[in-house]
Amino acid sequence: PQRWLAVRFPIVEAEGEPPILGCVGLDVTKYKQAEDDLRQSEERFRLTFENAVDTILWADPTTGTILNCNKAAETLLGWPRQEIVGRHYTALHSPEGVTACQRHFTDRSLNQGPISIHGQVVTRSGKVVPVHIAASLIPVGSELIMQGVFRDLSELNQAWEAVRISQHRL
């Protein structure tokens, strides 16, 4: 098996004596393995977050400022990440939906557990998109983050409308 060593070559000098080159080695295999494990874990998380089909938004639960989002958020909302991050989460919702979102996404209600609601977001082009939102407070390091996972319900709603029309015709 491969081993990792941290090696130092100190030079010891005593007055009136020639310098002596020493060698000190420390087995750092466990530390190196821990570094590799952490790097792989971070990569798995990043890939999972970035490639999720649903929109994921992280916001500061105190200020409501969006801190991070994934690629699906850019696709759903029509804005690049740098224009999503820094906005208040209510800026994404239709005017009618802002009050409901504010009521549900307060620290108080999120502390009672995950929330699952239907709402609407407004895209960059102004299109209103129906979404299902699952939100919860999650610990990230020593901080709590408000995580919202948004699922576009447009196709599902269209399918239900087609079923309703078919039933009405029958």
Short structural summary:
By secondary structure, the protein is of the alpha+beta class. The protein is built from 6 helices and 9 strands; from the N terminus they run ββββαββααααβββα. The N and C termini lie far apart (72 Å).
Low-pLDDT parts are none
Helix percentage? 25-40%
Outline, from the CA principal axes? elongated
**Strand arrangement, major sheet:** 6-5-9-8-7
Rounded Rg? 26 Å
Supply the number of helical segments. Answer: 6
Cα-to-Cα separation, first versus last residue: 72 Å
Query: Could you give the order of the helices and strands?
Result: EEEEHEEHHHHEEEH
Beta-strand share of residues: 25-35%
- The computed structural class is alpha+beta
Overall pLDDT confidence:
87
- What kind of sheet is the major sheet? 5 strands, antiparallel
Number of strands: 9
Account of the protein in words:
The protein is an alpha+beta fold. 37% of the residues lie in helices and 31% in strands. It contains six helices and nine strands, in the order ββββαββααααβββα. The protein has helices spanning 29-50, 71-77, 81-84, 95-104, 107-110, 154-169; strands at residues 5-8, 11-12, 20-21, 24-27, 55-59, 66-69, 115-122, 128-140, 143-152. It has a five-stranded antiparallel β-sheet. It has a two-stranded antiparallel ribbon with strand order 1-4. A two-stranded antiparallel ribbon has the order 2-3. β5 and β6 form a beta hairpin. The longest helix is centred in the first third of the chain and has 22 residues, at 29-50. It is elongated, with a radius of gyration of 26 Å. The N and C termini lie far apart (72 Å). The relative contact order is 0.11. The model has no long low-confidence stretch (mean pLDDT 87).
